[in-house]
Predict the 3D structure of the following.
Amino acid sequence: MKLRMLTLTALLIGVSAVASASELKNLKVLRDDKAKVEKGMKLLSKGLGVKCEACHVKGKFDSDDVQAKHAARTFLETTVSKADADRSEALKGLLGALQLAKPKAENQVWEGIGEFARR
Ligand code: HEC
């Protein structure tokens, strides 16, 4: 009986470890929620009018090797879940790093920000 309990406990610990494992490896601002991160990233990119590669090394989303990703992280740090943020000022900084005069659809940028939660 005792052994069965132990086995069951070990099994449950194993299952929860697998359930909480994520493929997202380098989040410093955002909560680790793959579906929300991807949805937000899509909206953010569309709203800005850029491809993922404006901030990411193709196929290596965890890499920090694209310079604009750092400015984007600061932008997320300033705006995600922060109602009192000066959003237009924050956006200006990001646009500068991306060498964009203006976003393609600003409302979509904020929709994307709305998908994210902080870690
Ligand atoms: C304007 C810059 C920017 C664009 C464009 C962008 N991302 Fe991101 N992305 C970031 C930043 C910044 C982070 C890191 C967030 C953090 O540190 O919490 C990130 C993180 C991610 C991660 C998590 C990677 C990991 O393992 O840590 C994924 C996945 C991702 N982005 C997917 C995408 C996809 C897909 C697109 C295109 C549809 C995209 N991103 C476009 C800035 C961008």
In short: The chain has a mean pLDDT of 91. The CA atoms of residues 90 and 102 lie 13 Å apart.
